């Protein structure tokens, strides 16, 4: 009598980072080890998720393969530096945080009015020169507030002041712009598709805009915030005059110091939820066939999580394929019960709530995730 061959179950791991404790790659590693202890024959597919900020390139390369290309570029305060982008076939993954992020600034107090995204544009230009036909641009973790003008300048957009002299604007002098010429940039980017990973919906300016909401986190005092916001208003008018595109109410225009608006209007980028960019690149609905379950998660599940970021973004699309989604998260804050109507089957919290300090939490977080996964898998 022939023995039946056990069915190989397929599991998808798609967690975001547990910010402050574990990055998404490490979360995947722990989840995978737990699954294989319970089901040694399992097929486990790990797709660590990043939101466009620091670590985006590493997550994409871990999930899709490819390699890094290192380029000499301009840092946020003008100093030369090395930065890399990811190459996946003819697709380049560029994270602005690798060039114009908090960790790339000068020593001492940050100055978002002076910081530039020029180096991000140089990285993108290098990718185009290397033959990349698509650029995925991660918007997140910036120390800048230049509306992406520096990035655009590196790609050939020309900015002119009242004297007709060309200059590269920063946040402090966006109001000097009198004319914008995009012709050279259009030639540079001809035939190149750009998708910007944008997980916030803030507009370019105003009370909820780039300067008012985010510039204080980057070192701006109240006077600087006011000036930066006024300058972004001028910038929006100049963009409208040059392109016919009104970025004033663009959802996500305020991302990364206004880079969402600049990328959209000056480079022709499409602003998309980061998770949708990843799922589309995966051909998500196709590869879900015969999948037993998807494990996702993040450091804290709260009302903001219901807005369609990683957990809900995955759940909505998995639901159509009738694949269950289990969220394993660090902590749950507030009432998140609506998440069950959005496609998440169960939520498990790893933090036992007994730690007295952040240090104690960090020390035990890996063990807590492992124990939680063991509990989940035992119940399945």
TrEMBL record:
Similarity annotation: Belongs to the glycerate kinase type-1 family.
Molecular function in Gene Ontology: kinase activity
Pfam family, one: Gly_kinase
PANTHER family in the cross-refs: GLYCERATE KINASE (PTHR21599)
Tagged with keyword Transferase: yes
Keywords: Kinase, Transferase
Protein name in UniProt: Glycerate kinase
Originating organism: Anaerovorax odorimutans
Coiled-coil residues: none
Origin organism lineage: Bacteria, Bacillati, Bacillota, Clostridia, Peptostreptococcales
């Amino acid at each position: 009598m022939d023995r039946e061959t056990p069915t190989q179950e397929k599991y998808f791991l798609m967690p975001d980072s547990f910010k402050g404790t574990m990055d998404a790659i490490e979360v995947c590693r722990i989840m995978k080890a737990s699954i294989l202890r319970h089901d040694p024959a399992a097929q486990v597919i790990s797709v660590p998720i990043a939101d466009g900020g620091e670590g985006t390139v590493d997550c994409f390369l871990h999930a899709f393969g490819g390699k890094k290309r290192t380029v000499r570029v301009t840092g946020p305060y003008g100093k030369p530096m090395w930065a890399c982008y990811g190459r996946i076939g003819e697709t380049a993954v560029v994270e602005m945080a690798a060039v114009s992020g908090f960790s790339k600034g000068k020593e001492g107090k940050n100055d978002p009015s002076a910081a530039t995204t020029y180096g991000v544009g140089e990285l993108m230009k290098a990718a185009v020169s290397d033959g990349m036909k698509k650029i995925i641009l991660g918007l997140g973790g910036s120390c800048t507030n230049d509306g992406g003008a520096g990035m655009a300048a590196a790609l050939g957009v020309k900015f002119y002041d009242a004297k007709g002299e060309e200059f590269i604007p920063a946040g402090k002098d966006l109001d000097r712009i009198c004319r914008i010429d995009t012709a050279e940039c259009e030639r540079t980017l001809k035939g190149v598709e750009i998708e910007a990973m944008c997980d916030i919906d803030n507009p370019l300016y105003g009370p909820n805009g780039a300067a008012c909401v985010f510039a204080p986190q980057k070192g701006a005092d109240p006077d600087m915030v006011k000036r930066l916001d006024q300058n972004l208003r001028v910038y929006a008018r100049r963009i409208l005059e040059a392109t016919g595109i009104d970025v004033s109410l663009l959802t996500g225009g305020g991302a990364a110091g206004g880079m969402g608006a600049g990328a959209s209007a000056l480079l022709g980028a499409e602003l998309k939820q980061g998770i949708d960019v990843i799922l589309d690149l995966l051909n998500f609905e196709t590869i879900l066939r015969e999948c037993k379950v998807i494990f996702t998660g993040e450091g804290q599940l709260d009302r903001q999580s219901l807005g369609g970021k990683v957990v809900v973004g995955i759940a909505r699309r998995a639901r159509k394929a009738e694949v269950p989604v289990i969220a394993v998260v660090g902590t749950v804050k507030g009432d998140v019960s609506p998440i069950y109507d959005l496609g998440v089957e169960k939520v498990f919290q790893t933090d036992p709530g007994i730690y007295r300090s952040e240090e104690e939490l960090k020390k035990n977080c890996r063990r807590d995730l492992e124990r939680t996964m063991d509990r989940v898998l035992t119940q399945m």
